[in-house]
Amino acid sequence: MTMTFTLTRRAVVGKMALAAMLPAIAASPLSAIAATSTPKPTPEEPATAALLHTAFPHARLDAAFYSGAAGRYLAEIAKDPAAMAEHRRGLALLDGSYIAPFAQLPEMVRRSMVARYDQEPFFKALIWRGAELIYRDAAVWKMVGYEGSSVEYGGYIERGFDDIDWLPAAGGAK
Question: Which residue positions does the secretion signal occupy (predicted)?
Answer without folding.
Answer: 1-26
